[in-house]
Every structure is written in C-alpha cells, then in structure tokens.
Amino acid sequence: MEELEKVKFNFKEDLVISVGDLIDRGKESLRCIELVQEPWFKAIRGNHEQMCLEASIAAEMKDFHCKHGGKWLYDLPHNKYLEVLSICTNLPIILEVKFKGKIYGFVHADINSNNWEDFKRSLKNDNYFSKITDSSLQTALWGRGRIKSDGKNKKYKNIKGIDEIYLGHTVVKETTQIDNCYYIDTGMVFGSYLTLLELGCNR
C-alpha cells in the first residue's frame, strides 16, 4: 500500500495484478489474500496458494506447507479457513490482459512452451499429479526451467502469440528478462524490495 501511494495509484481507475504467492510471507497473509476481493486488485495462483488446496486433501502436504510459512492458515477459525480455500480455488492459473495494443500474460512460475495458445490449451490437461509427463500446470505453479537456463537453453525461445509475460516464484536481484518473459520477484520477503511495474512503459 505504501508503494501504491508513492506512485499515486488511482483506486478507481487503475489495476494491480499480482503474480501469486500472496500468502505465507509474513503475519498478514489473511489480509493479503483478501485483497482479491477488492475491485482494483487481481491475482493468479502461486504455488503457496496451491499448497493450501493440496493440504486440504493430503496430510503430508500440510506438514510441508507449515514448514514453508503456512502455519497461519491452520490457526484460523474454521469458517475463515474455508474462506481462504475458496479464494485459492477461484484464483486463475494465468491471466491475459489486452492493453494499449499489446497482449500481456501473467504466470506464477514458468512456461514450458514457446507458443502462448498451445500453453493455454495444455493447462486443461488432467495431468498435474503425473510423474511421467511435463505437466504445463505443474510448470506454471512450480517450474524454473526458463529462468534457470538464463537464455542459454535452445529449447526456450521467444513465446509466440503474446507480447510480454510476467512471472514471479524465482527470486531475482532485479527484474530479469528471458526472451519475452519478465521475472519480477525481487525478494521483498527476504529483505530486498518490492517490484511494481507499470504496463506499457519501457523497461
């Protein structure tokens, strides 16, 4: 909210889009996830929101989630716990925004295709829990292939069918561009700073 104040954010006309992991990053996880109920705020699902959902059906994921900042969720009153699960369930895996003649995409972690339309279609495959397939849904929530390659893996190229894609998940020292993907998680939770970018501006 302090950063929005600095840039004179207009709550009636402007829009914030989060690239996921609104929760498990401090004492105000509940207030953060409830931001999606505001008309000026949109978010996609991150792997931490995914952990909330998986923990509701698998006890081993609850322990894993708690080790990674999720204990707050299980300390909530039951009605609030269910409310958070509902919010997480309804968060989209990706967002696509058309603005000033360009198409912008938002994915939490990674994209394992060089074609945006192919990637969107493959997200509908029912293979998230498969160990033998390169699931696009797993990649979108947990992957790091493109950023780890640092542009050196010839498997990854500029993604066709979209102008720019914004991602989080992997902490970078500063906004990092790989092809037409921009990684913007600059590690505020680890004592660094929050990145806030305005669409349509030169990077």
Automatic annotation (TrEMBL):
Organism the protein comes from: Acinetobacter oleivorans
Q: Which PROSITE patterns match?
A: SER_THR_PHOSPHATASE (PS00125)
Residue ranges annotated for the Serine/threonine specific protein phosphatases domain, each copy included:
44-49
Q: Mind telling me what this protein is named? A: Metallophosphoesterase
Q: Which Gene3D superfamilies does the record match to this protein?
A: 3.60.21.10
